[in-house]
Design brief:
This protein has seven helices and 26 strands. By secondary structure, the protein is of the alpha+beta class. The strands form five sheets. Strands 3, 4, 5, 6, 7, 8, 11, 12, 13, 14, 15 and 16 form a twelve-stranded antiparallel sheet that branches. The protein is elongated and about 110 Å long.
Length: 465
């Protein structure tokens, strides 16, 4: 029994040492694995940190205290030909005073060489205008005045909102009405239903214009150039209102917008009279139309008058203004921005211009979008480099939640910092599409009050290289 026990003991001892050696090897391997793993999971930002020179580390900063201020000025006029809609109406604003809109338009005959017969008799002359929208209060009463143009316009020419043309002094409409831009119209005798239109009778007060159109010869009706020399067109203007008001948008090159001549006629001396005849004149892309806008600032607020009319630009620290229809634009100055170039090599990650509005400005709806141009050497507006990235990036859309407008002008600010010799004349701020948008807005200046966020400012996120 003893030899057997001895053999078993030796075998167990051998297995024990093999087990210990295997465990030791596993422990060593585990320790090595943990060491490697802990090295691989070190924070990326820490790798090489201890050997990076202090003066070579990138420093990211934020600044919103750069000196910036603005003030407002009158716009002489704005281009107003070839627009998508023609404007008519009047607004009375407690801050901006009064705005009145009207339009010039040519007509073309519906058929060439038309003859009204050897004898004819006027029934009526009706100007029908198709509603396309409105701005303001449609409960107001507007009055339409219509005049014949004695001086023509040309579709190939450029015209501005202060255009004046010689007019026949006869007012053919003088028609008071409340706008109904959403009401369908039923036309007799067939009970045809069409979209909302305004119908002005141009023969009720005076029949001379209708008689003139009836006197046109087939030769005058055959050539567009000859006809537009014979009848140069109409000017339709609103009478100013005393409070609130509304601007109506009319779509002129539409099938329902037309000048209709209703008449009776005899084809020959011996033929019978034929009544209930109609001949239409249309407005199309081959005719010229021009909007005219008039601003009367005599009833504007004292603060507006002092800054915009009397040119006290220092009042821009409190508030400044923008208005469509060639009314008011603002000048924004960032006089010390090139000083940034003196602190070293600076990369602008983002430069955002923030333009908050006066919180109690609730008289009219705000503009949907504003726009910026840089002021060139000649004082004219020039395109900024930032809109090239994309209009969504550049922004300028109204933000209802904060009552602000914002612009990213990163490339523009970077250019001023990188080249300190570059001329810095500032920026023009105005309504986007101001030729067709009458809206206005009051901005908060750079004067700091209890709410430091409610001021014009330039937010700069930058990196010192």
């Amino acid at each position: 029994m003893l030899p057997t026990t001895s053999f078993m003991t030796k075998s167990l001892v051998k297995k024990f040492f093999l087990l210990v050696r295997s465990a030791t090897t596993a422990l060593i391997l585990l320790s090595a694995f943990l060491l490697v793993f802990s090295s691989c999971t070190k924070e990326p930002g820490k790798i090489g940190y201890v050997i990076q020179p202090e003066d070579s580390k990138l420093r990211v900063g934020y600044n919103d205290t750069t000196t910036i201020y603005a003030y407002s000025e009158i716009i002489d006029s704005i281009r107003s030909d070839k627009l998508s809609v023609s404007a008519f109406g009047s607004l009375r604003d407690p801050v901006f005073g009064s705005t009145t809109a009207g339009f010039y338009t040519q007509f073309i005959p519906s058929s060439g060489g038309h003859s009204f017969g050897v004898e004819h008799m006027l029934d009526s002359l009706i100007l029908q205008l198709t509603y396309e929208g409105y701005y303001g209060d449609t409960n107001v009463v507007l009055t339409a005045h219509t005049y014949e143009m004695l001086e023509g316009i040309n579709k190939d020419s450029i015209y501005y909102s202060n255009l004046n043309r010689d007019l026949n002094p006869i007012d053919y409409s003088n028609f008071a009405f409340s706008p109904e831009p959403t009401k369908k119209v039923i036309l007799l005798p067939n009970n045809d239903t069409i979209d909302a239109v305004l119908r002005l009778n141009l023969s009720d007060i005076n029949t001379s214009l209708g008689e003139k159109l009836l006197s046109a010869t087939p030769e005058q009706m055959d050539s567009l150039q000859v006809f537009q020399e014979f009848f140069k067109g109409l000017f339709v203007q609103s009478q100013p209102v005393y409070e609130d008001g509304s601007i109506i948008y009319f779509g002129l090159p539409t099938s329902n917008t037309k000048l209709s001549l209703f008449y009776s006629s005899k084809a020959t001396d011996t033929s019978a009279w034929e009544d209930s005849l109609r001949y239409d004149y249309y407005i199309s892309t081959s005719t010229a139309t021009v909007n005219k806008y008039e601003h009367d600032y005599t009833t504007a607020s004292p603060e507006f008058t002092a800054q915009v009319i009397n040119k006290d630009t220092s009042l821009g620290v409190q508030q400044f203004y923008a208005q469509g229809y060639g009314g008011v634009q603002s000048v924004i100055k960032i006089p010390n921005i090139n000083h940034w170039g003196r602190i070293g090599n600076v990369a602008v990650n983002e430069a955002k211009l923030v333009l908050p509005g006066i919180s109690n400005d609730e008289f009219f709806d705000p503009p949907g979008k504003m726009y910026l141009l840089k002021i060139g050497e000649d004082g004219l507006g020039e395109t900024l480099p930032d809109p090239i990235i994309g209009e969504y990036y550049f922004d300028g859309e109204y933000k209802k939640s904060t009552n602000t407008y914002e612009f990213r002008i990163t490339r523009y600010i970077q250019s001023l910092i990188s080249d300190t010799t570059q001329t810095n004349n500032g920026l023009y701020l105005f309504l986007f599409g101001g030729s067709v948008h009458p809206e206005r807005f009051i901005f908060k200046g750079n004067q700091v009050d209890s709410d430091t966020s409610r001021r014009i400012k330039l937010e700069i996120l930058f990196t010192e290289l």
